[in-house]
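Sample pair:
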Amino acid sequence: MSLFDLINPFSYITPIHADDEPVESESAAVVASDVVEAEVEVIESVEASNADSESSDEEEEQEEEEEEEEEEDPVDPKEAIVEACSETMSCKSLKHHYEECAARVENGSQESCAEEFLHFMHCVDHCAAEKIFAKL
């Protein structure tokens, strides 16, 4: 028996010659039926595992969709805190200076309101930082 015969899954099939009548031994028939039975078992087990995995995948997808529906997106408190801080007494005067500068720019002034804006935002950030980190 050669190495090819060991590797070849169809080694149980005997060669057929034109002049000879087909000859099949009983051992070759037994081997062939064993191979077919093994292939059928493998196919059935693969189909069963595919059916199980498909049903479990569908169940997981349904569970994820239900969880997504139940969970609400958390609301970011930063915007409300920043708005409240911009109305405090300490920041209100800086906001007023920034708004006056913005009005002058709209009327044709060539100045930049960057300084006023930065002072105002510094005040708002300073006020909001404690409150935002307290919410974390």
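The two ends are 75 Å apart (CA to CA).
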